[in-house]
Amino acid sequence: MHVSSSTLTRSAGTQRSRIASRVIGILLVTSALVVLFAMMPPLRRLALDYEKRLGKLCMSDDNLFAKRTGAGLGFKTLPPVVQAMSAVLKREKIDTYWVSPDLQSNWMTWQRIVEGNWPHVPRSDAHAIFRPMGKTRDPACRVVTMADVGYELAVCP
Amino acid sequence: MILDVLTSLLYFLGLGCLIQAGLDRLGAQDHHAQPWRPIATGPTALARDLSIRIALGILTYGAAMTTGLPLRAGFLVGAVGAGLGLFLAARRFHRQPPVGLGLLAALAWIGLALLLVALVSTVLPMDVLWANDARSVWFFHGKIIYFANGIHRSSGWNNEAILFSHPYYQKLVPILAATEMLKFGYWNEYLPKLALATPLTCYVLALFAGPRGRASMSTVATTVIALLGSGTLIHVGYVDAYTALPAAGALWAVMRWLSSGNPRDAEHALVLAGLALSTKDEGRLFAAGLAVGVLPFLAVRRLRWAAWSFLRTRTTWALLVLALAPALLWSIRVNEFGLHHYLQLNLATQFRALHRLRTGALPTIVRALIDPSSRWFDSSTSVLSRLLIVAGVVKLLAMVLSRRLRLVTFVCASAGVAYFSAICVVYLMTPADLRWQLSTSADRVMLIVFMCALGLLADGLEDLEGFTLGPRRKAVVGPRPR
User: Fold this and answer.
1) Backbone phi, then psi, for A66, in 5-degree steps?
2) Pairwise CA distance, residues A32 & B80, whole Å
């Protein structure tokens, strides 16, 4: 098959033009991305945050994942009163409870109590009520004190 | 833990393969074609097909669990289905094994996407669930589902004590979290977030399918920007990033569909929009915005034809039902449980909106959304205006250099504007204190607008990367005539 020299020259020219286009394209994209990252500090900060977190994971002597595997882990971040309530509810095998108004007045504490203690369900008609220590007057109630957090659980008939 | 993430991924991929096999049979009746669709082997097409299958798996599982199926039984039935789906996919692959460099390139492309997912997923379980909505809304609902072994009336959804957690919110992510912990066999405050790894894989693969269906440097860069732009929201347990990322994926898919008319891209957009609207209420607004954004393009005859032929198939309607199923079924259950959304479209909210309009609240809302003074989370929505400037400049430069106007880019702008307008209306109607509501949520809800702006940038970058020293071309929209 005969291929003319002009065809070969044209084909080489097209190839060169394609490579040049590709290089120019990549350079343009790179410069646009450099400008973008320079203009958007949060992107840089977030990239560094990831690097820091992953670095911490790699440099850690012990297995960070192993520390996160196990029932009930992470409850230490809850307020002490919620942790104490949770322990008492489990120990006393109580399914439903209610709390005194002072514990409900702070919305964040109230939320932590409800979601932290679940599946123990808060119900206003429950027989078990958390109150500040010494507030239970009814002698028929059984009182479980939580001295370290200043509350008690009154289980009334 | 890595094994657990992988099994979750295979679980939903397998389920998706099974559903896809069913849809392909349905499609074969429409087209009298082969009873199954081969899995694509091009890099971006493979990313798209895997993303569709994972999305189908998640949507089907979410819909089934929303009906009130017991969690353990549902999970086991799903496992059988997933196994069958994986077997069918493997058999198909065995019959027509794709070979050559194309397959290698595709696997390398998927590998790169999975590497990005692995980097983000590794960070997921590092922190305890400390963020308010994460522990008091999304993963608290997961905890309720986990301990009640499903979504039942007796689970306590209408207990007044949990009203703070908005029990009427969508349940897709809580269902995934409950399922994740079901596999561990206990509940703790670190691992539920691992449930986000599977949807994240689906979304990163969707972004890797690219706005042009081209495996390019721009596609990787925009995916990285989408992940970084989501900021800490991606790993603190909030679901806003997991609503914005499928929204971005759906936008990319729509851009591809508007260019090529390939029904597979429209299917991709449909399932991703379904995931966005099943994850959070903002996803519904985005899906509506996207539909509004696409409407003007139907003025083009070729696109109208592509849309008509897409809507005529039974596969499309089955997909539509699947995409809407989790959200629709949950709406039914919300009525059944007697739950009420805090934002109701009644006379009172309309009067409130009108009152706020009269008292000049709209400029405050727009200002707070575009450039909020307070940010609760470190995300890139605070520099949205800068992203828009860069995207505009890049697009302009691309237009000048390529001497070509791509109208499909404007679907990002129209969807973004439609969503933004809807969000403004929601803020006008909110019964909560407006300033408090804006200060606590503006940065999160704007993440979807950030993704729309990123769509503009992604398209511009693709233009720049595909720059050719060639002749002038005409403005193009819609599939090219064959």
Assistant:
1) -60, -35
2) 49
In chain B, how many domains are there? 1
Q: Residue B319 falls within a domain, yes or no?
A: yes
d(Cα B55, Cα A156) in Å, to the nearest integer?
51
Q: Please tell me if residue B232 touches chain A, with a CB cutoff of 8 Å.
A: yes
Q: Is A34 on the interface with B (CB under 8 A)?
A: no
Please check whether residue B177 is in contact with residue B139, taking contact to mean a CB–CB distance below 8 angstroms.
Answer: yes
Statement: residue B304 has pLDDT above 90: no
| Average pLDDT of the residues in B61-67 | 95
Residue B394 forms contact with A (CB below 8 Å) = yes
Q: How many beta-carbon pairs under 8 angstroms link A with B? A: 151
Task: Tokens 């520099």: give the residue.
Answer: B383
Handedness of CA B448, B453, B458, B459 (dihedral sign): positive
User: How many C-beta atoms surround the C-beta of residue B317 within 10 A?
Assistant: 12
In a domain, B476, yes or no: no
pLDDT confidence of residue B91: 87
Highest mean pLDDT among B242-246, B345-349, B383-387, B470-474: B242-246
User: Within the 60-89 window of chain A, which residues sit less than 8 Å (CB to CB) from chain B?
Assistant: 64-65, 68-75, 77
The region of weakest confidence among A37-46, A136-145, B128-137 is A37-46
Return the number of other C-beta atoms located less than 10 Å from residue B124's C-beta: 22
Does B323 fall in a domain? yes
Q: Which of A39-43, B64-68, B398-402 has the lowest mean pLDDT?
A: A39-43
Rounded to a whole number of angstroms, the distance from the CA of B397 to the nearest CA of chain A is 10
Which residues of chain B have a CB within 8 Å of the CB of A103?
none
The answer to the question of residue B299 being in a domain is: yes
Contact A21 B467 (CB under 8 A): yes
Domain extent at residue B149: 2-336
